[in-house]
Amino acid sequence: MDKQVIDPEGVYRLLLDTYGLSGKWEAETKWEIALGAFLVQNTTWHNTQISIKKLGEVTGLDPIVISELTAEELVPLIYSSGFHSSKSRLIFEWFQWMKSYQFDELAILHDYPDEEGLRKRLLQFKGIGNETADVLLLYIFDQAVFVADNYARKLFTGFGLAEAADYMSLKRYVEERTQLSLEEWQDFRGQILNFGKVFLRGKGPHEHELFEGYVVQ
DNA sequence: GGCCAGGACACCA
DNA sequence: TGGTGTCATGGC
Question: DSSP strand E in A46-104: where?
Fold first, then answer.
């Protein structure tokens, strides 16, 4: 039984056709998305939501109000999503940085016109690594990038792609072979999360039926 | 009661 | 460059 060869964009279409779920990030503002991206690190979305709710009760998720809190004042608000020491510091640093640009991401894009330069700047924050940097580029700065997180690597590993073993290798592989609109890139990320949470669960990538008929090249 | 979740980082060889 | 310990809460 020969497997059908598909490219990374084909994987996106396959997820859409197979499961038909929405990949949209449910958030009111980009501030909420950034907070979610920081707080969810190595934590469940459930615990993240508890923190965001508490932050919302105190600050209204207003970036100006948040930027006036110290890292110490942030700790009890984000306690339930774990790693409160490092995450509170990161949130503090992030909103101070945004404040220095009058909370205007377009002003940041003006200073960092190329995606690589902005990505390097994001990686300078302690607490922002490859995955969070790409999430910020994708949802805050509207850059067409691929987030090669653990679920993405499991997904592409399941399709037999050797590059999926390494974050940057998979990111480059997918980006070089895929032409999507910004909204589709954002949806792609959401589709992969849905796949990981809802369909992969505890299964290893090779145990999922989706992988039986296809290989990615 | 151990294990892990939508990571990142410091330290080590 | 690659492997390992650490940070921490909440749900199962």
Answer: none
